[in-house]
User: Which sequence fits this backbone?
DNA sequence: ACAAAAGATACTAATATGGTATCATTATCT
DNA sequence: AGATAATGATACCATATTAGTATCTTTTGT
């Protein structure tokens, strides 16, 4: 069980850094700050731009800045970008083994735990991290 | 984020089935009950035997039974067998980026969430599932 | 025009998960 | 004793996900 993956982590830290910085931030700067492979973080930033978390500027003097204030960026949204639907609750069992999903004691308990985690994740903003 | 993996799920259901059954249970019976690939579930049961959750009997009339009462088997232990340390809280960052892990706001919050989930997982026994 | 930035996209590598195959060992029954 | 029915051990293969690279295009400021 891994709550967040590497690219989510990189993304969050990049966003935090950009949020703290008043100026536009280049990939170069982030590479230096975070020590993350350049092409990898480029891809991450591009995704964040596509998903409208960041705004990007091409050409000399270009780079990235936030598109939304840090208090309105929830880490669950960043997780969703890189990890898809965060809580799956997929049942591995075929219908005839687990005829009634709703009554499966195991699923029920796991779902509760997942819902709790989700609820907490939904409350954390970038602002609360910087 | 996937709370449990397939083999953990299979293991839990096998244990539940064995717990409900008064008699010794063979792989064959479990395959019929759960519709899971035979060699795969064999491996799972072997691991459960090694970890002393189940007891196994070779030869004709052999099979598996519980070694511990269902009220004392916690699903977190089964998860640990198949998924290793359940909550990792690994930080992907090098020391110079994240100089003080304890003060990293992100880690702190994630750890809290993970600890909550863990606490809940630690309370669920097989007995509570059957 | 040129250089410095990001955009797009396709590819490769590593790891984890899910699953098979095969042979050895042990116990029971006749 | 030998056949049979069970698990033990172990090595292997397949697939999916995650992590990371490479390359070429586009935009923009000087």
Assistant:
């Amino acid at each position: 069980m891994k709550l967040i993956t590497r690219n989510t982590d990189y993304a969050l830290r990049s966003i935090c850094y950009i949020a703290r910085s008043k100026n536009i931030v280049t990939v170069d700067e982030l590479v230096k700050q975070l020590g993350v492979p350049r092409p990898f973080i480029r891809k991450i930033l591009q995704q964040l731009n596509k998903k409208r978390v960041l705004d990007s500027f091409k050409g000399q003097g270009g780079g990235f800045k936030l598109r939304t204030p840090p208090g309105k960026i929830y880490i669950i949204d960043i997780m969703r970008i890189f990890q898809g639907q965060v809580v799956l609750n997929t049942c591995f069992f075929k219908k005839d083994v687990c005829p009634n999903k709703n009554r499966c004691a195991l699923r029920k308990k796991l779902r509760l735990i997942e819902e709790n985690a989700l609820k907490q994740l939904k409350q954390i903003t970038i602002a609360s991290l910087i």
About this structure: Chain A touches chain B through 40 residues (CB under 8 Å). The first helix of chain A runs from residue 6 to 20.
